[in-house]
Design a protein that fits this description.
globular, 6-stranded parallel beta sheet, 299 residues, 2 domains, 14 helices, Rossmann fold
Length: 299
């Protein structure tokens, strides 16, 4: 039995406009006020749209705090009762905008990306319905185009239209916000703001360890896997723990076939797999359009 791991490059390769740059265009067009606010909340808004999940964990807290301080009316305060509520509220109001962004992300997948699947007239790979699939995508491309049974797919971050389950998207910033500026320390206004900021970081955190534990049965059954094919995954650090879990359960002789798109990804992918403890003799790296699966997995 083989394991096929699906990343966003798989959807892109089929013509679905699913990159973060495409999401940027969606937000700018459909919610311009949110788009403009995000440019204020992040020091490098361009990075937000190229490294979306990681950047969610790095909003410009210093600017947000200064904005909150500017809203405090000291003329109406005797300074023995500092305006905690205003300071707290302004920070929270700014960070709620980012929560709205995550909601917009779900709407984008549901209202835009899913509809593109119906426009695809031919498949790119000869996928075996009896294999098992680990999908990092949110669309149902595997089911609709390739007729893969839902029971054979683990959507590790949930999928669109899956009841009330929210799509999992978030950062891996494990550091709590520190008291790193001197705004009204005498009245503990910093501490008030930091509580809100830390709640935000926790709310937008991707709980990979919990997700792995919840899906432990899936990973524990991988000992029978002979070959793994990774299609369209960037092998980013943020998802590395999932691949460590896969490597932990498959045998040392399991073959790994990995796709890449850009030339600079070739060595990056190899290093990523070496770090997992995969022997280089068991690794094949190919351009995604050169992988037919029949050739490399002997279907």
């Amino acid at each position: 039995m083989n394991l096929i791991i699906i990343g966003n490059g798989f959807d892109l390769y089929h013509g679905i406009p699913s990159s973060y740059q495409h999401f940027k265009c969606y937000v700018e067009k459909c919610n311009n006020s949110l788009y403009n606010k995000l440019n204020e909340l992040f020091c490098n808004s361009d990075l937000l749209w190229s490294d979306f999940e990681n950047t969610l964990g790095e909003p410009d807290f210093a600017t947000i705090r200064l904005d909150a301080e500017d809203c405090i009316d000291y003329e109406k305060s005797d300074r023995t009762q500092p305006d905690y509520d205003t300071y707290h509220f302004i920070i929270e109001e700014n960070l709620i905008e980012i929560d709205n962004l995550i909601e917009s992300f779900g709407n984008w997948v549901k209202d835009r990306l899913e509809k593109y699947i119906d426009l695809i007239d031919c498949s790119k790979f000869n996928l075996n319905k009896n294999d098992i699939y680990l999908s990092f995508n949110y669309t149902t491309l595997l089911e609709k185009l390739y007729n893969i049974n839902d029971d054979n797919i683990l959507y590790i971050h949930n999928k669109v239209n899956n009841g009330n389950n929210r799509l999992v998207v978030g950062h891996r910033n494990t550091q709590e916000v520190e008291n790193n500026c001197n705004i009204n320390e005498i009245y503990n206004l910093n501490n008030q703001g930091e509580d809100v900021e830390n709640k935000y970081l926790k709310k937008t955190f991707k709980p990979i360890e919990n997700i792995i534990e919840y899906n432990s049965n899936f990973f524990e059954k991988l000992s029978s896997i002979n070959k793994i094919c990774i299609l369209g995954h960037s092998l980013s650090v943020i998802d590395k723990k999932y691949f460590e879990e896969v490597a932990k359960y498959v045998t040392k002789e399991t073959k790994w076939i990995v796709s890449y798109y850009k030339e600079e990804e070739l060595n990056e992918h190899k290093i990523f797999l070496y770090d997992l403890g995969i022997d280089k003799k068991n690794i094949e790296v190919h351009k995604i359009y050169n992988i037919t699966l029949n050739d490399h997995l002997d279907f």
